[in-house]
Amino acid sequence: MNYDELSVIAKNMRRNILTMIHAANSGHPGGSLSAVEILTYLYFKEMNIKDVDDDDRDRFVLSKGHGAPVLYAALMEKGFVSKDLMNTLRQVNSKLQGHPDMKKLKGVEASTGSLGQGLSIANGMALAFKLDKRKNRVFVLLGDGEIQEGMIWEAAMLANHYKLDNLTAIVDHNGLQIDGRNEDVMSVEPIDKKFEGFGWHVIHVDGHDFSSLEKAFEERKTIKEKPVLIIAKTTKGRGCSFMEDKAGWHGKAPNYDEYCTAMEELGGDN
């Protein structure tokens, strides 16, 4: 799949995200929109995942579980989840819960939401595949604010100890969290030096550029006996001019006028 085709999918995913969150009048648009290209590349270019029931599929864990709409949008574009569910986000008994629930929706590999836990879950998957001598790979998406959690660093230490070279973590580094800029809440820098100190190989990318993402994942394939961290520089609220780089859009749904403006900017019907 070429970059133009990936761009079309990314635009569709942004429309899906905004439609879901507007219909629910609740959700997290900022960090969902910032991760669109990352998930587009993973699901449509990088991961081996043709069927959610295939034991040989690669696994994806959304550690920043509040970004569930971007995962649902990817699963919809992949054809694993019906778009008929789009208006059911966050409703009681819906398959599209506010945080991913693996018991409700096929294609969700781990129930997440409590920040900091996803990397440990991904470690367990990757270690199990190693012990079973299987070729499955595991990818996990972290928020940059999320790595303030101590559990992340325990997991980072374990991944290196067991030489989990089938594990790739990606940090959605948009610089913002619910209370403001990371450096004002609790600085997470230098992310690269910290993970390198725990024995990881680190790669920097533009998280909205498919060429940059492709180079990063190709480099990742050359790294043996080490887990890899990809630090993806992104913009919170990417694709909606009035949301971009604004912490206030971490967990706020667009009203009707805002939704219409966003959909017009993305070239979609509202």
Walkthrough of the structure:
By secondary structure, the protein is an alpha/beta fold. The protein has one domain: Thiamin diphosphate (ThDP)-binding fold, Pyr/PP domains (Rossmann fold). It is built from ten helices and seven strands. Strands 1-2-3-7-6 form a five-stranded parallel beta sheet, with helices on both faces. A two-stranded antiparallel sheet has the order 4-5. Helix 6 links the parallel strand 2 and strand 3. Helix 3 packs across helix 9 and helix 5 packs parallel to helix 6. It holds the Pfam family Transketolase_N. GO terms for molecular function: metal ion binding; transferase activity.
How many individual domains? Answer: 1
Helix content: 25-40%
How many beta-strand runs? 7
Bin the strand percentage.
5-15%
Write the H/E string, N to C: HHHEHHEHEEEHHEHEH
- CATH H-tier superfamily: Thiamin diphosphate (ThDP)-binding fold, Pyr/PP domains
Overall pLDDT metric: 97
Most strands sheet: 5 strands, parallel
- Category by helix and strand content: alpha/beta
State the end-to-end distance. Answer: 28 Å
Strand order of the largest sheet: 1-2-3-7-6
CATH class membership? Alpha Beta
CATH topology: Rossmann fold
Radius of gyration: 17 Å
Number of helices: 10
Organism: Sedimentibacter hydroxybenzoicus DSM 7310
Family: Belongs to the transketolase family.
Keywords: Metal-binding, Thiamine pyrophosphate, Transferase
Domain Transketolase N-terminal: 10-267
